[in-house]
Amino acid sequence: MTSDQFNISRRGLLALAGVGLATTVFPRQLFAQSGGVLIIAAGQDIPNFDPHTATGYSASFFMRNVYDPLVRISGNPPVPAPGIAESWTVSPDGTEFTFVLNKAAKFHSGNAVTADDVVYSFARALKLAKGNSWMIRDIVTAEGVTAVDAGTVKFKLTAPFAPFLQVLPWIFIVEKAVVEANLGSDSGETYLMTNTAGSGPFSVARFEVGTLYQLARAPEAWQAGGGNLEGVIWQIVRETATQRLMIQRGEAHIATDLTSEDMDALKDASGVVSVIEPEYRTFSIKMNTQHGPCADINLRKAISYATNYQAILDAAGYADLMKGPLPMGILGFDANLAAYGTDMAKAKEFMAKSAKPEGGFKLKMYHVSGLEQQRRWALIMLDSLKQLNIDLEIVPMNWPDMVTACKSPETFPDLFPVYQTANYGDPDNIAYAAYHSSRNGAWQNAVYKNPEVDALIEAGRKEIDQAKRVAIYGEFQKKVVEDAPDVFGVLERRKLAMRDTVKDYHFTPVASNAIEAWGLSLG
């Protein structure tokens, strides 16, 4: 694509061109010239551009800005809002949803978004069975999504699903004609690795893997409520301390990965706004339950009891300790769950039952390169495991490489730290993504599988009686804790920093580090 395809001022283009020369920090002069270009400093690369395969907060940022879903989420607490669909109706039994599309909706090609595109997108997502398709698996079928006419789509669900409108923001609509023209032998996956077929308010102007992703306001942008941004830059900045300095010096507008110490350091910084808000954001350290030493449940329990949880909490700062797999406050959370705590007597008891009771072996732990918080937790695990005579090899990696390592038990490390932010405020989000076996091979749950846990998760997502759902998720939590697939860590508050020149920002407690730029302005 050429720059003249985008509605960017000469001033903005000069700024965007200059950014390509930067590898970590923008000079002040460049920032001063950036006009309406929002610069976001983030530590995670974007794995690919396919809205039906890519996951992670960086991918969510990309999809939210380049693609559109039927329904968006806004507010705190989050509520469904129109996206491509301007309105919808629901049958009394909760199994049929009918969506009327906005007649103004257009793809970047200039073509109208039609019901056929919506039907095609859901069928493709379900066929590929990757990315966010887990959210609708066993609830939506390809046959159950039909075009009533060019502007109306009907969904016939296999069963009632309470959070259906809450999950729709994560199933993005592609232009059928573009994907079909580039289908190849893999349903267009190769093409959409580095190309797009969206209708979002921004288009891809340029990208340099590992450095930056540059979006420009699409000339076809049809969405209401847009701010004055001419473009957005997702700048890869691995070190959180560097992100903080960029915010302090006015070299970035928003930083997404700051530590508690970073936030404290910014409290009195001129021109900086701090956002520290609760959301359903879990941090756990997943263990390889299928391959290697941690396939031994007794070793997993020994590690769970040997972990220094207070040190993990102290390193987290603005956070609370987890009790089990679900975050506090969410529907069904069991405050009385018998959870793991630091107890060396129990740790040694389970170690004695393990296959290698004397220890003397080494485990491997990956963490995101440059993410200081994860590095600290890895060092805490190193010290904790020494008490069991277990050594720990700590390996920093780029996020796309970590995602690749999740594809099989043989490539998955012994310990793998995971942040998971609920994309919708329902226990199904965390439970299905992080513990259902259909997610094996994905970073949320690379290897853990238990048929009894699967059955509970499936029952919970289809049940609409709230009391029954609470009971189901109570059993789910007990069974997962008994399996000890994770070291249950902390519930962190979301920490963002931004310049006070960013206008009209409103916090929403779902995927809040995947910034939605449409609606923001610089002033």
Low-confidence stretches: 1-33
Counted beta strands: 23
- Helicity, as a percent range: 25-40%
What is the CATH architecture term of the largest domain? Roll
Radius of gyration: 23 Å
Strand order of the largest sheet: 10-11-12-1-13-21-14
Helix- and strand-based class?
A: alpha+beta
Question: What's the CATH topology label of the largest domain?
Answer: Dipeptide-binding Protein, domain 3
CATH C-level of the largest domain: Alpha Beta
CATH superfamily (homologous) name of the largest domain? Dipeptide-binding Protein, Domain 3
What is the overall shape?
Answer: globular
Q: How many strands, what sense, and barrel or not for the largest sheet?
A: 7 strands, mixed
The structural domain count equals 3
Average predicted confidence as pLDDT: 92
- N-end to C-end Cα span: 29 Å
Your description of this structure?
By secondary structure, the protein is of the alpha+beta class. It folds into three domains: 3-49 and 56-64 and 200-278 and 495-522, D-Maltodextrin-Binding Protein, domain 2; 68-181, Dipeptide-binding Protein, domain 1 (Alpha-Beta Complex), CATH 3.90.76; 281-492, Dipeptide-binding Protein, domain 3 (Roll). It is 31% helix and 22% strand. It has helices spanning 10-19, 28-33, 57-66, 115-128, 164-167, 176-181, 189-194, 240-248, 260-265, 297-306, 309-316, 344-353, 372-386, 399-405, 427-435, 451-462, 466-483; strands at 37-42, 68-69, 71-74, 79-82, 85-90, 96-101, 145-149, 152-156, 172-173, 202-208, 212-217, 231-236, 254-255, 272-277, 281-287, 319-321, 361-368, 390-397, 415-421, 486-492, 494-499, 502-503, 521-522. The protein has a seven-stranded mixed sheet, sandwiched between helices. The longest helix has 18 residues, at 466-483. The radius of gyration is 23 Å and the shape is globular. The model is unreliable at 1-33 (pLDDT under 50). This is ABC transporter substrate-binding protein. Residues 80-441 form the Solute-binding protein family domain. One of its GO terms (biological process) is peptide transport.
